[in-house]
Amino acid sequence: MSGKLEMLEGVSSLPKPLIMVVEDEAPLATMLRYNLEKQGFRVEEAADGQEALTRIAETRPDLVLLDWMLPAMSGIEVCRQLRRRPNTRDLPVIMVTARVEDQDAVRALNTGADDYVTKPFNIEALMARMRALLRRSSTVPVKGQLSFHDIEMDLATHRVTRNARRVHLGPTEFRLLEFFLQHPRRVFTREELLDAVWGPDIHVEPRTVDVHIRRLRKSINGDGELDVVRTVRTAGYALDTEPV
Length: 244
Ligand code: CA
Hints:
The chain is an alpha/beta fold. It has two domains: 18-136, Response regulator (Rossmann fold); 145-239, Winged helix-like DNA-binding domain superfamily/Winged helix DNA-binding domain (Arc Repressor Mutant, subunit A, Orthogonal Bundle). Helix content is 43%, strand content 19%. The chain has nine helices and eleven strands. It has helices at residues 3-12, 26-38, 49-59, 75-84, 102-110, 123-137, 171-182, 190-198, 206-220; strands at 18-22, 42-46, 63-67, 93-97, 115-118, 145-148, 151-154, 159-162, 165-167, 229-232, 236-239. A five-stranded parallel β-sheet has the order 2-1-3-4-5, with helices on both faces. A four-stranded antiparallel β-sheet has the order 6-7-8-9. The relative contact order is 0.09. Residues 1-13 have low confidence and may be disordered. Bound molecules: calcium ion. Calcium ion is lined by residues 24-25, 67, 69-70.
């Protein structure tokens, strides 16, 4: 199989980004779902803050569109709670507000929202902000680029850099890193990595994964640089900047 074909398959089999729409006004939620699905996103909805926290924990969305004015628990409080939980600390959040005062926008951002839009918003402008945020959070590739922390991968040229330094990887290490970049911070078992990177029909010893992880670490971690490949004892590996 040619490397190029593998790359294309790898990209096309990526799941569409999942957006959690937290909105208590049903017509607005419906309009957002319609537009987001048309743009190739998957959509989950929650109509209040408590439901939002539960559904976000269950479905692990790539981005949250969070209405400020919600019944019972405000969007601000939802955002605060998301930032407090390790699993959602880095989850991209765009606050949607009917308020227009600058201090409210500042307050939204201080609570941990990554961006905000004011109602009524232009759907194209919202999409542009969502894409920019998704690109920054690197949960989905945009225009053939994957990135995490100070690592960047160009899928078209196979160029990998860390902190602007060129990193040379073997084909298996490249595929491993590509897979990790597509799912940052998620822990994968050796078997899952074998299925994803080598393919389900290929029979290799799980410890082969350890060998390639070691090579990946050696190439990607320069002198004095943070080890971005986290070993999770008994569980497997993750691309992460946080210790266990
Ligand atoms: Ca509302």
